[in-house]
Amino acid sequence: MQLYNLNLEQAHNLILASRFARTTVLLQGHMGCGKTSIGKALAAALPSHVLCYFDCTTKSLGDVVVPKLKDLDGNDYVRFAPNEEFGVHLNKPVILMIDEYGKADPSTKNALLRVMQEFQIGSYALPEGSIVFATTNLGTEGVGDILPPHARNRITVVTLRKPTAMEFIEWGVSNGVDHAVLGWVKDNPHCMQSFEEVKDPDENPYIYHPRSSRAAFVTPRSLEKASHWVKQRGSLDRATLNAALIGTLGQQAALDMAAFLDMADKLPTLDSIKRTPETALVPGNVAALCMVVYRVLGCIEKDWVEPWHTYLQRLPNEAQALFVNGVRSSKYSETRRAAVMNSPGFTQWVHKFSYLFGGDQ
């Protein structure tokens, strides 16, 4: 059934369509792989909606609705007021994200059933056009996510797959992940492997495995966090940096990445590429070349596109193609893409290597 596991973009599109199907989609997937980030992407795609976040791990039944006394013809009665996090008071469509549904206590799960099936909280209905979606971890991860059959039958459950190494790199280039981290991922694509593909945890020492007691491990989330430490390596001694990486990625991945950083620190400086592209250092191995390309993709500006093209022509064709494919990615910054594609150097490059893109026509 892994054939029908979705990537983040497919899951995003399915949830967008759910506002017409009036059905709640629940995404189940590996930890740290971007399930929660879909809420922000949906909010960007639907500016007329308000993103509302309901974290089930911090809620009990009383956090869903609470009673308050009302008067009806001289008689008191109880009316239940919903939590403001549902957004029913906003009088505009909402994107209601019910996070970590599988970890909610049973009473909270039951209280949310009507929200997910009927878009109704007590006597209050979500505004027309609203979206409700939920997230949870895979039950096989063993972190306490349980979906009762009667709850599952009311919603559409789909499985989110882990991103591939290249999908993470594309995302990382546009989201400020350090080029050395991206280069390490390119060199170690098995860091994105699913534990479902690994019978013996020792076969892949980087990833989470329910049969292993690793306290830290590699996920897209922990790689993004490691990137922040890597960017601070100039102000940290090596032992401190290694300790931070071990606490973020686990020992094996951290020490392997630390060795990789030695190579990253020997790359040509951006200043040398901008000022003397004809003589700036060209690395002699593939991993270093990839890091040069990823670093430039993440920070190139209009005022030094032409010097970069001069330097780019000195790189192997494979490295040149890596850069151009990065620029052409749908996830790449539109501003940077325009700066590169509108430059004379890029036009000359495309003319020279047009045969590489014959299949796109």
Notes on the protein architecture:
- With 361 residues, this protein is α/β, with parallel strands linked by helices.
- It folds into 2 domains: 2-160, P-loop containing nucleotide triphosphate hydrolases (Rossmann fold, 3-Layer(aba) Sandwich), CATH 3.40.50; 165-212 and 263-360, no CATH class.
- The protein has helices at 8-21, 38-45, 106-118, 149-152, 165-174, 179-187, 220-231, 238-249, 251-264, 270-275, 286-299, 305-312, 317-328, 334-341, 344-352; strands at residues 25-29, 50-55, 65-72, 75-82, 94-99, 120-121, 124-125, 131-137, 156-160.
- Strands 2-5-8-1-9 form a 5-stranded parallel β-sheet, with helices on one face.
- Strand 3 and strand 4 form a beta hairpin.
- The two termini are 33 Å apart.
- The mean pLDDT is 91.
Describe what is shown at a glance:
This protein has 361 residues and is an alpha/beta fold. The chain has two domains: 2-160, P-loop containing nucleotide triphosphate hydrolases (Rossmann fold, 3-Layer(aba) Sandwich), CATH 3.40.50.300; 165-212 and 263-360, no CATH class.
